[in-house]
Amino acid sequence: MFEKAALRTAKLLYALAIGAGVIWLAWLCLVHLPLWAAVLVFCLALPLLALAAAPVAAGGALLAGLAVGLITLTRYGLARRVRVDD
């Protein structure tokens, strides 16, 4: 249960962080540059952004996933279990 909750949360947060970075870069390029320059800068800057942001996003997603996993494990342990008396 811990691993499942932690992994699902980490994957989701990593995808959101990287997606937000790509959208931010696209917005920055399209707002401040003409279309041809925006396409060129986006294609050149996206790999650099991915190299710089991937470790930070992965670390943050890992920590958040571990926190959610611990919370899930704690809540599951504190929940009252139903007993079936034979």
Question: What can be said about this structure in brief?
Answer:
By secondary structure, this protein is mostly helical. It has helices spanning 2-32, 35-78. It contains two helices and no strands.
Protein architecture, described:
The structure is a single chain. The longest helix has 44 residues, at 35-78. The protein has helices at residues 2-32, 35-78. With 86 residues, the chain is mainly alpha-helical. The mean pLDDT is 82. It contains 2 helices and no strands.
Summarize the helices and strands and which ones pair or pack:
Blueprint: H1 2-32, H2 35-78
Helix pairs in contact: 1-2
Which terms summarize this structure?
mainly alpha; 2 helices; 86 residues
**N-C termini distance:** 28 Å
Shape annotation: rod-shaped
Secondary structure tally, helices: 2
Main sheet: strands, sense, barrel? none
Instruction: List the uncertain runs.
Output: none
Radius of gyration computed on alpha carbons? 20 Å
Along the chain, the helix and strand elements come as HH
> Helicity level, as a percent range?
over 70%
